[in-house]
């Protein structure tokens, strides 16, 4: 991905973040449109950059930490544009855009590697893609949980302000939370399985019990329990919101762990 | 002759007592006939809503009338004794009684000031009184005026906006918890005015089902019909809570009807699906501690007001304007009543006749020119004779009938036949009450309008 396009995208996401945060404070239609426009422009440039990379290298650029974060960021903005605009919930942007922007920043902060390690086997590539997509699901669940807790707090404390007005209804946020996990969980499961297969192919063992693998398994068990809890004992609404926030914090810790330990490691999970 | 009112309302009596005194429309004829049979009562009207039970009457002597009305109320329900009832009753007579009715009609005496239904209820009470012929000239005049005052207050002050905005707020808040009201079940507890209003606005947003429960099962059935919902026995309130997504509580009971434990149980049964509760009554019916239950959202009337930015100060200002309007109208009503007494009418009638005689005589003398004293006396005598003979009948009848049951009808009729100016009355009658009432009123032949 070219440096210029990356910075341009980051700049637009930053602009979108500022605009969306301002949008939260005022009941202005224009502000909402401008915010969406800026975020959309950033997304188009981002997509173009990804497209160019695919054309030049022949595969989706996700093999470095930097590329992975960039792809993660792209997916988040895509979710915002699809869900937010379809439901008329521009306020989703206020929460997703900062996350996308921060991912881009962390991507640029990561040391530049000489060149992407070419995937030895196809399974590695599949493993990384699935893991990132799963993580996008958990990120959206996190955002939904955060919004849920904010709206819940505003309603409980009877603060009928602009934020209360703009945040979506609680049941919508709970459903978004559930669906995001339902989207992320199978992808994560497949990601882990393909990861194990790749490990077998590259280093000859399915599971080497390195910290990333352990974290990935803990994350998987955690989200499995969250999903089961909803169905069996009614872990929904506020509890689900808390759990998904905790879960995503775990995911972020895994990311940071990977970043600190070995910048050249190929998979985030 | 005195205008009196005896009654109780949401401030003076608990809902259990008010419900005992409720008379269904089907038995209203019998009840009104019973009222009219009291010797001291000349006219009567019964006003019953969930928040008040009042009997308005024209009585010969107010003390006597009050006693008879007490007797009437005690007799409405076999389980009532006067010891139960008396501490809760208020009584007003004459100017105060009129002022009370006007304030009720203007929704100034309502639990939720400005709620629109009371005006319709006053109209219904009036129609029932007309149908069963229990009201007469005086009550008809006063109640019609009360209705027009009520309308006047609604159009000329912003007092009504407030009540409407409260139920709007209830819907808006519900939409912050539930995105699709069409999939939601509403439970209405109690039959309070604001509760019905809030339920109505939710129904108009198309909720899935409306469940209704009140202490009085008949009322629940009637409401179920109105909202096309389902009545639930009151003792099943607790088990029904878990089925409801939205609970509107407006019972008018002076204690908590829904406790924290009830809601904890319901939320547990709902497997943490949020439950949204509106407590629209004062004093509150839902324990405020419910707010500490996760996934339960309870809002009281103050919260609803805060949501729409209804501020207390502004509301009081509007209420003050309304009170002023009411006061003016009471003044003009009292003036009209004073004019109904026999003596001033007789004096006015005599004076009018004298005035006419004098003017006509002056005209004729002027035309005839010089006349002898004898001719003048003869002509004057002729005029006096005609006037006196013509007035004799009406004056005798007025004097005699003024003491009778229908005295005011005669006096009012005389005033209108002879186009007597009511000097005491300076104010003007506002636009007459239109719509469905009027064609019935026409039959009553009198009191359609004052001299302007």
Which strand order does the major sheet of chain B show?
A: 7-6-5-8-9-10
Count of DSSP strands of chain B:
10
Number of strands of chain A: 0
H/E topology pattern of chain A: HHHHHHHHH
Structural class of chain B: alpha/beta
What this model shows, in words?
The complex is a heterodimer of chains A (269) and B (452). Chain A contains nine helices and no strands. In chain A, 79% of the residues lie in helices and 0% in strands. The C terminus of chain A is likely disordered. Chain A starts with a helix and ends in an 8-residue tail after the last helix. With 269 residues, chain A is mainly alpha-helical. Chain B is of the alpha/beta class and 452 residues long. Chain B folds into three domains: 156 residues, Glutamyl-tRNA reductase, N-terminal domain (Beta Polymerase, domain 2); 148 residues, Rossmann fold (3-Layer(aba) Sandwich), CATH 3.40.50; 105 residues, no CATH class. Chain B is built from 18 helices and ten strands. In chain B, strands 7-6-5-8-9-10 form a six-stranded parallel beta sheet, with helices on both faces. In chain B, strands 2-3-1-4 form a four-stranded antiparallel beta sheet, sandwiched between helices. In chain B, a hairpin with a 3-residue loop joins strand 2 and strand 3. The longest helix of chain B has 29 residues. The radius of gyration of chain B is 28 Å and the shape is elongated. The chains are: A mainly alpha (269), B alpha/beta (452). Chains A and B meet through helix 5, helix 7 and helix 9 of A and helix 8 and helix 13 of B.
